[in-house]
């Protein structure tokens, strides 16, 4: 009920009694309930008028479908004609991220044992560059190494 707890409901009742007084409170409750009932009737009659104007092809039209979340849930996720659940269940994000990290660090999936230091292709030095060591200068005519982080 509108996400109101019992303690909050008691506080609202006490506040209403203090503001309107015990003699006017029953009339206020009647007026509010009558107004809510009229609004609900007006809303239902407007929905029926729209359904009748749309014609028989929209007899199953629900106004809740106008909410994008409800529409997607009803038409895409419930039917699952495209096999989205199978795709979603078959996708292992952790394994994909591990593969990407291995590719970035120059490790292969089989050779890199957990806990072992990866080696670079040119020899026994680690795959991570030594930032204190000066990089070698390219020969004249040779292209400089490509740095994906710099682009």
The gist of it:
The protein has four helices and no strands.
Overview of the molecule:
- The chain is mainly alpha-helical.
- The chain folds into 2 domains: 1-59; 62-108, no CATH class.
- Helix content is 52%, strand content 0%.
- The chain starts with 5 loop residues before the first helix and ends in a 46-residue tail after the last helix.
- Residues 111-121 have low confidence and may be disordered.
Question: How are the secondary structure elements laid out?
Answer:
Layout: H1 6-54, H2 68-77, H3 84-90, H4 93-105
Q: How are helices and strands ordered from N to C?
A: HHHH
Approximate strand percentage: under 5%
Helix content, binned percent: 40-55%
Structural class: mainly alpha
Radius of gyration: 34 Å
Count of beta strands: 0
For the record, the count of structural domains works out to 2
Average residue pLDDT: 76
Biggest β-sheet description:
none
Low-confidence stretches: 111-121
Distance between the termini: 55 Å
Q: Number of helix segments?
A: 4
How would you sum up the global shape? elongated
Keywords: Cell membrane, Membrane, Protein transport, Translocation, Transmembrane, Transmembrane helix, Transport
Subcellular location: Cell membrane; Membrane
Membrane topology: Single-pass membrane protein
Pfam family, one: TatA_B_E
